[in-house]
Design brief:
Blueprint lengths: L1 H14 L1 H4 L1 H11 L1 H26 L12 H10 L2 H7 L5 H6 L2 H16 L3 H23 L12 H27 L9
Length: 193
């Protein structure tokens, strides 16, 4: 469990610099340069992510159960997950979805975390998905208070939306039917035990 907690602390402390100390981040960018900052950020974020994955995998088998979600919430969870991949892809593809959602990646993280909190109630689940949900909410609130970033340089394109939706739904189906069980050892469509 300690590995999971350390991973979450490292990952979210890095991802919260813009929330907590945006001016410090700007000074560091000027001091060390964009390339060095991004390299160090990516390296430390990667270490945090690996610690989260390893810590979560080790903590789950012997985890304390905090609550048992009713079986009816599984369907709600599956429905909440439906727009997650299209929103994630829309964050990188110019189009109406990205414009209207404003921050589609944060919306995707909030839906993903909420869906998983509704479906799983062990301590590592609540810790992992709860941290992601709280962070995404706090980051979205802080984005409203920060000066707006420059608009994306690529022009709006309905193809971006089409790609985000079609590829996103295909990824959702692939995760639902195969990848979630293969990568994480949990089959979302398997009958509850």
């Amino acid at each position: 469990m300690l590995t999971l907690i350390v991973g979450l602390a490292l990952f979210f402390s890095l991802h919260s610099v813009s929330i907590i100390a945006p001016h410090w981040r700007d000074r560091m960018l000027l001091l060390v340069g964009t390339g060095a900052w991004k390299s160090l950020y990516a390296l430390l974020s990667g270490v945090g992510f690996v610690l989260i994955v390893v810590g979560f995998a080790h903590a789950r088998p012997s985890a304390a159960v905090l609550y048992m979600p009713p079986a009816s919430l599984r369907l709600v969870s599956l429905l909440l997950m439906l727009p997650v991949f299209p929103l994630l892809l829309a964050a990188y593809l110019p189009g109406r979805i990205r414009t209207r959602a404003k921050h589609p990646m944060l919306a995707a993280v909030k839906l993903w975390a909420t869906a998983h909190l509704l479906a799983a109630g062990t301590l590592p689940d609540v810790l992992l998905f709860g941290c992601f949900l709280i962070w995404a909410i706090v980051d979205r609130i802080s984005l409203k208070r920060r000066r707006p970033a420059p608009p994306p340089s690529a022009p709006l394109s309905r193809h971006g939306d089409l790609i985000a939706v079609v590829l996103g739904l295909a990824l959702y189906a692939l995760f639902l039917l195969k990848l979630h069980a293969l990568l994480l050892g949990v089959a979302p469509l398997a009958p509850p035990i």
